[in-house]
Every structure is written in structure tokens, then in C-alpha cells.
């Protein structure tokens, strides 16, 4: 098993099953003791804002706010710098615990020994 799991989620409400799957895998990995880094990119960038996850619904899936809370409690959640800029989202706008960082940080995390990277 990988020591670290980096997950990049590009989907949001536009592709709810893909989005939910990424958050579910991240939360289950955290609960399993895996070090998790969840990256919010593309349409998932909106979930870095307070209250946005509460508006997401997908039948037969765990509530997105609960999944996000789990990942924030035991892992790292990062909002892509360019995705944030395109949506006029700044550091002061995001949920406490969410950081904003760019591709250099993503590549550094993904290339660390013992890391598995997934893209949804």
C-alpha cells in the first residue's frame, strides 16, 4: 500500500459521480491511515468555499460536506492556484484548512517515493 495518496479531482457538480468518487476515496484512505493530499481543480475548486459542498447531492453517496471534513481532519486539501484565480477565489475566501498552491507543489507531492497519484 502506498504511504501517501495524492488525489486530483477535476469534477464538480458537472460530473457528480466522478466528484463523489474522488472525495470518497480520499476520506476512506484517511480513515485507513493513509497520508492523503486532495487537490481541488477545475469545477471542484468551488468546494473550497464555505457552504458549497452542502449544495452537492448525489443519491446513494455520502454527503460531500462529511467527506470533505474527514479529509480536512486527517489529510491536506489544496486548491489549485490557477483554478482559484480564474474563479476570483482568494486565501481569505476558502474554508479553514484549505491551502492554495500550484503545479510545482503538486508535482513535488506526486513524485515523492511511496506516493500513488489518482486523477478524477
Reconstruct the topology from this structure.
Blueprint: E1 4-9, H1 16-31, E2 35-40, H2 64-74, E3 76-80, H3 81-86, E4 98-101, H4 103-110, E5 115-119
Parallel strand pairs: 1-2, 1-5, 2-3, 3-4
Helix pairs in contact: 1-2
Key attributes of the depicted protein:
alpha/beta; Hypothetical Protein Ychn, Chain: A; 4 helices; 5 strands
Give a quick precis of the structure:
34% of the residues lie in helices and 22% in strands. With 120 residues, it is of the alpha/beta class.
Polypeptide structure, described:
By secondary structure, this protein is an alpha/beta fold. It has one domain: Hypothetical Protein Ychn, Chain: A. 34% of the residues lie in helices and 22% in strands. It is built from 4 helices and 5 strands; from the N terminus they run βαβαβαβαβ. It has helices at 16-31, 64-74, 81-86, 103-110, and strands at residues 4-9, 35-40, 76-80, 98-101, 115-119. The chain has a 5-stranded parallel β-sheet. Helix 1 runs parallel beside helix 2 (64-74). It starts with a strand and ends with a strand. The mean pLDDT is 96.
Amino acid at each position: 500500500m502506498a504511504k501517501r495518496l495524492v488525489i486530483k479531482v477535476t469534477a464538480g457538480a458537472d460530473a457528480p459521480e466522478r466528484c463523489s468518487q474522488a472525495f470518497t476515496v480520499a476520506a476512506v484512505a484517511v480513515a485507513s491511515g493513509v497520508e492523503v493530499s486532495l487537490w481541488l481543480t477545475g469545477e471542484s475548486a468551488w468546494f473550497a468555499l464555505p457552504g458549497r459542498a452542502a449544495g452537492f447531492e448525489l443519491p446513494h453517496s455520502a454527503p460531500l460536506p462529511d467527506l470533505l471534513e474527514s479529509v480536512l481532519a486527517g489529510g491536506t486539501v489544496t486548491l489549485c492556484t490557477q483554478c482559484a484565480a480564474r474563479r476570483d477565489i482568494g486565501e481569505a475566501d476558502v474554508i479553514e484548512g484549505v491551502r492554495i498552491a500550484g503545479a510545482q507543489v503538486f508535482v513535488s507531492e506526486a513524485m515523492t517515493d511511496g506516493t500513488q497519484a489518482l486523477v478524477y
